[in-house]
């Protein structure tokens, strides 16, 4: 214990939200110090990492034959073990600007539905990347902590954390998860739904970055008074030539209907399984939404209308999980008997 305290003085212990779309790093005593896309550019012939994060994301879909831009996380779990290890190592080195002999402790947020094999892959990646000690925390619980939800009270709160690869739904009371559900639908599926819709309805082929741009600009889940319009650029599926298309927010709502309905069904299913006393608390307190996916316009109104329960966005939805891992890290001395 004394040695552990001594190590703590010299290492930048960190909480990591290892997301499908973005990775955020919280450093003890400093707050969130890094937020970058979970993308790595690799030279395929040598396996050498050429770029990580923002620089690598700019290369997506634009690389020459010998360079591959990889998103090593898929549906909230590791899809490419070696690349994730390199990515975590890069982020550790970026945060640990000075060379230190003491390896950091890490708290990493993981989806509640992952298997033991997937948990072991996260631990091993972090160990290989240079972590001294690794703790895992469910993303929904971390999101609740980061959103300042009073999780230790004897009252029910529902969290809906919509990330890039998964949507985590949990009912929390007395510091634990009473109901937990994880579906592999998130911001990536929103993008794929847009790409599919434009291909089938308009024979227009667009890339991931354009799909994300249109989702963020005019994507919506609930009708607004003002209809927005955006011009898209892509390739004609029949002629193969470049083409532009104007699309409005009503059309985008149709494109996004399938993944949004899947999230609604998962929320309804969790509410149906919630004990009556806690369900009454949720009706009074509302549902708290976190994660980048909850920024889709009108999603809070749509879920509230369909469930009959008030829905609120957390104050900083993009950073809630990272903040939660950090606060868990800060309290680690008191809760060492937690998830390890």
Instruction: Enumerate the strands of the largest sheet in spatial order, edge to edge or round the barrel.
Output: 3-2-1-9-10
Helix percent band: 25-40%
CATH class of the largest domain: Alpha Beta
Number of strands: 18
What's the story with the biggest beta sheet?
A: 5 strands, mixed
Strand content: 25-35%
Shape summary: flat
Overall pLDDT metric: 87
Helix and strand element order: HEEEEEHEEEHEHEHEEEHEHEEHHHEHEH
Describe this structure in words.
It is built from twelve helices and 18 strands. Helix 3 (81-95) crosses helix 4 and helix 5 crosses helix 12. The chain is flat, with a radius of gyration of 21 Å. 39% of the residues lie in helices and 27% in strands. The two termini are 16 Å apart. It folds into three domains: 2-141 and 321-330, ATPase, nucleotide binding domain (Nucleotidyltransferase, domain 5, 2-Layer Sandwich), CATH 3.30.420; 154-185 and 260-314, 2-Layer Sandwich (Nucleotidyltransferase, domain 5), CATH 3.30.420.40; 187-255, Actin, Chain A, domain 4, CATH 3.90.640.10.
What key phrases describe this protein's structure?
single chain, alpha+beta, 12 helices, five-stranded mixed beta sheet, disordered N terminus, Nucleotidyltransferase, domain 5
Tell me briefly what this model is.
The chain is an alpha+beta fold and 340 residues long. It is 39% helix and 27% strand.
Give a topology summary.
Blueprint lengths: L1 H9 L3 E5 L3 E6 L3 E7 L2 E4 L5 E4 L1 H4 L9 E4 L2 E2 L2 E2 L2 H15 L9 E6 L5 H14 L3 E6 H8 L10 E6 L4 E7 L2 E8 L3 H16 L1 E2 L2 H11 L10 E8 L5 E7 H7 L1 H17 L2 H10 L1 E4 L8 H9 L3 E3 L6 H11 L10
Parallel strand pairs: 1-9, 9-10, 11-17, 17-18
Antiparallel strand pairs: 1-2, 2-3, 4-5, 4-6, 7-8, 11-12, 12-13, 14-15, 15-16
């Amino acid at each position: 214990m004394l040695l552990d305290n001594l190590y703590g003085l010299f290492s930048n212990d960190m909480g990591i939200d290892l997301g499908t779309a973005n990775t955020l790093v919280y450093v003890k005593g400093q707050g969130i110090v890094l937020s970058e896309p979970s993308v790595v550019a690799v030279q395929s012939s040598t396996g050498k990492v050429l770029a990580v994060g923002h620089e690598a994301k700019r290369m997506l879909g634009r690389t020459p034959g010998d360079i591959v831009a990889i998103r090593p996380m898929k549906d909230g779990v590791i899809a490419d073990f070696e690349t994730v290890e390199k990515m975590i190592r890069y982020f550790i080195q970026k945060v640990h600007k000075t060379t230190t002999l003491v390896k950091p402790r890490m708290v990493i947020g993981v989806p509640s539905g992952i298997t033991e094999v997937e948990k072991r892959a996260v631990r091993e990646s972090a160990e290989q990347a240079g972590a001294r000690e690794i703790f895992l925390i469910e993303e929904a619980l971390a999101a609740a902590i980061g959103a300042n939800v009073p999780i230790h009270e004897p009252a029910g709160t529902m969290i809906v954390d919509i990330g890039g690869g998964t949507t985590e739904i949990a009912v929390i009371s007395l510091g634990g998860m009473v109901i937990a559900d994880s579906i592999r639908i998130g911001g990536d599926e929103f993008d794929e739904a847009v790409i599919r819709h434009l291909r089938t309805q308009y024979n227009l082929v667009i890339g991931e970055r354009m799909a994300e741009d249109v989702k963020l600009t005019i994507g919506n889940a609930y009708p607004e008074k003002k209809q927005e319009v955006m011009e898209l650029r892509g390739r004609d599926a029949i002629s193969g030539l470049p083409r532009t298309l104007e699309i409005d927010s009503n059309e985008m709502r149709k494109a996004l209907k399938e993944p949004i309905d899947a999230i609604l069904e998962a929320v309804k299913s969790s509410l149906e399984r919630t004990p009556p006393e806690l369900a009454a608390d949720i009706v009074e307190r509302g549902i708290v939404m976190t994660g980048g996916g909850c920024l889709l316009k009108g999603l809070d109104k749509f879920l509230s209308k369909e469930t009959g329960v008030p829905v609120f966005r957390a104050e900083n939805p993009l950073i809630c999980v990272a903040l939660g891992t950090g606060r868990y890290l800060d309290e680690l001395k008191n809760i060492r008997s937690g998830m390890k």
